[in-house]
Design a protein that fits this description.
Structural class: alpha/beta
Shape: globular
Strand order of the largest sheet: 2-1-3-4
Oligomer: single chain
Distance between the termini: 18 Å
Order of helices and strands: EHEHEHEH
Helix content: 40-55%
Number of strands: 4
Length: 101
């Protein structure tokens, strides 16, 4: 499965999720930031993907992604970025637990 992982800036939460998906789930995954990529680039990546996992904390960014991704949209909320490291053990554990739900 091809999964687009989206957070606000594409540095921590989406990177962590995409790495875990690639390493443990054998998925193709790509991390981006909703605030940094153009709508045109996001549309291209949404077309590429089978699912779009949205981790943005702001309602504006979530709505933007919901509009662009439509039936591929999956809210994958892990909260605001407080880790500042895509491989922080706490973040990894939160993502793994959320994935099992």
């Amino acid at each position: 499965m091809k999964i687009l992982c989206v957070c606000n800036h594409g540095n921590v939460r989406s990177v962590c999720l995409s790495r875990l998906l690639k390493d443990t789930r054998q998925h193709e995954a790509f991390a981006i930031g909703a605030q940094l990529f153009s709508d045109e680039s996001i549309k291209y990546l949404v077309e590429w993907s089978d699912k779009v996992f949205v981790m943005c904390e702001g309602e504006k960014d979530r709505e933007k992604m919901k509009d662009l991704a439509k039936n591929k949209y999956v809210l994958f909320d892990v909260g605001i970025d407080r880790w500042f490291n895509p491989m922080h053990p706490e973040l990894i554990e939160i993502i793994k637990q959320k994935w099992q739900q």
